[in-house]
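Notes to self, RNA helicase:
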Amino acid sequence: MLHIPGFTYPVKEYFLEDVIEMLQYSPKDCDRRPQWKKRFMQGRMIRQEKEQKEEIYRERWPEFVQKLQGKYSASTIEALELVDDEKVDLNLIAELIRHIVLKGEDGAILVFLPGWDNISTLHDLLMSQVMFKSDKFIIIPLHSLMPTVNQTEVFKKPPCGVRKIVIATNIAETSITIDDVVHVIDGGKIKETHYDTQNNISTMTAEWVSHANAKQRKGRAGRVQPGYCYHLYNILRDRLLDDYQLPEIVRTPLEELCLQIKILKLGGIDSFLRKLMDPPSQQAICLAISHLMELNALDKREQLTPLGFHLARLPVEPHIGKMILFGALLCCLDPVLTIAASLSFKDPFIIPLGKEKMADARRKELSKNLKSDHLTVLNAFEGWEDAKWRGARAEREYCWENFLSSNTLKMLSNMKGQFAEHLLNAGFINSSRPKDPKSNINSDNEKLIKAVICAGLYPKVAKIRPSFSKKRHTVKVYTKSDGKVSIHPKSVNVEETEFHYSWLVYHLKMRTSS
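result:
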């Protein structure tokens, strides 16, 4: 056995009551008690354990406040009463950063926030203050939507007299290490995806961190000298945090896993999943099986169909796998693989802070008025391939001008090669090259490509209905199970008022906290 000793410096922890006392902070436009009542009356779809903990929190609150008396000022206790637990108080974080800069020790500041909206808002909030506009500060937002070239600054030690402030999601908990961090501000929230089986929809909400998350965040400080961690939740909340995040298997769709169970001949889907340490709900299992039957991947006896057999051998979600197979069969392979890779991983677009409108405009231009996000990604990817042929400089300029991540585009290219290898091994194509001419006889047929996308993603379709108002002509979008839905703000169709067809096809339907 090899033992590698590690060493970290001590880290002093503060909780919300300590931070408020330190700053003499008073939240604005907040009222805790009506929020409690409102959330209770709304009956939000939350897991039972969480609801029970919220009830315990409410019951223990008066006793907790009583114990604070004498230890903290009356104004701090009053402020705690006013804090809205559902929101991350960015004004408080800005005040805390200012306090650390003016009175704290030197060293980088790392702020943990749940998502892009919070990161961009805090960045704007800091940059609106004269203090942070000076060259004595380097403020680095860390998010997948940001250009990689900007984010490499996070690992560089700033010049003497310059303070580095990093605003990040939970990616900075374990995926990267920033050696010079001395101060960690833990916003207390983390974005989690859950699958609502009752409504057949994914949800993306900001949840409380677990103790494991909080420990990881604390551990980011104290790597080069004694550090400080500011948890922006009170000690009562800390005692009620989960030890760990929910396992992914109980909060995500199960279709891909079900296919693996069948192709590996592990027995019945339900009986196998019930044996797991953290088994998914019966409703989630039944819904996954129903979806696979609807996709014609399983028959009525829950056995793999020929289609199901091939879907199980592809390393993608079944609907995307079906799209890939149709692309191979109908000889429009390369464009379909581009779209499939993007749906499996992520699209290559980035949004630099302060250039959001420019990025949206370039994306709209790349759509070429086709009114399709899928074809917009395809156009962007093909433009990148053309630029690569002209050399490294042309490639860099193309990505810069069109707000594209070259790393993501390279990843999509690699994924396309892997998909083609799977198709070759299965006998669907004769070459592992996505651009093989025999596999791309129909790759210029836009209508066929759209048909393949639809065939793969069906029944994920939405109906477009015109809506006329006195001010302007708009459209409304409906799905069969949800009624009226909204197009995502990043879509090229978000402000579209006229469509050539009455239907839209989508890959992901998600309920967000906004």
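- The first strand starts at residue 11 and ends at 14.
- Residues 36-45 have pLDDT under 50 and may be disordered.
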